[in-house]
């Protein structure tokens, strides 16, 4: 998409972003959405990037930075992993992230999280990680995670900004309104640690049933929709580190 058009869109649909400073005073949880090989590692699958992608690489790098800080502080992390049964398609997408495959595993830069005691891993079989956290007995692993850790703020990062990240954020906001997620107060999307895929119009036109999906535009739309639903959007995340005297 031409930069002039994108600039005009951002002018017409502005997304106010803030600097977020995290401290020990407020219980904060980090939610990682689908930072798996099948969406992030070049050539890993049908929905993986076909070439190195700056937005996706930046998202992974920022997510790793946050994850390391949260683990250092022993703050809770909830990692959603897209993981599908081979016989249950997820229309309109081609087969992807089949359960047990490398596609459904965390990217190499985050695989160390599997051994961290403050991390909860949750495989999900649908777009919306909130719904994907529901167990067969009706309980919800994400809801339990919020309540157990008495989380007041969740910081959401991952892929895709306008699809799985947005769906999860919207459901979390609705659950907060219904007091299902008490004591949760704020849902914050960290824009540099989110990304989406790029499918230009000229490519989509040659794929039956495909919709064009310009990366920068849809990333912005995802942030705009999240903001409109009641989430906060942060452009910078800092940690308030106490100064020892």
UniProtKB/TrEMBL annotation:
Any GO BP annotation: pyridine nucleotide salvage
SUPFAM superfamilies assigned: Isochorismatase-like hydrolases
InterPro entries for the chain: Isochorismatase-like_dom, Isochorismatase-like_sf, NIC1
GO molecular-function term, one example from the UniProt record: nicotinamidase activity
Limits of the Isochorismatase-like domain: 29-203
Pfam families per record: Isochorismatase
Protein family (similarity comment): Belongs to the isochorismatase family.
Name of the protein in question: Nicotinamidase 1-like isoform X1
Species of origin: Coffea arabica (Arabian coffee)
